Amino acid sequence: MYRAIFLQVGATIIAALAAGLFAGTRGAVSATLGGLACTLPNFLFATRLKFVAKRPGASYPANFFLGEFVKIAATVGLLVFVVKEYTDLHALSMLIGLVLALQAGLLAFWKKS
User: Fold this and answer.
1) How far, rounded to the nearest angstrom, does the alpha carbon of residue 113 sit from its chain's CA centroid?
2) Is CB count within 10 Å lower at the N or C end of the chain?
């Protein structure tokens, strides 16, 4: 589970560096915020699933689906917060950071070792 999150952090760093080259500091910060809006809820979700899996008698599928719903809501909430609060936002950089972080999670399942 955590490998996907590490890949998302790596993709966010790469997106921030690339956005920094093209849009300056504004782009780097925007890409970082976009990537973190995806990575932070995923980290919290993975941590919760890790603890639920160790509890005897816990309904893992119910916790998974409830956690997934909360994760999506938290991601959307963080994105709305970033858009409203960060006045110097570079929207394209934020979206690139978000998309790369979202797609990096798929690499963890594609790469077996």
Assistant:
1) 22
2) C
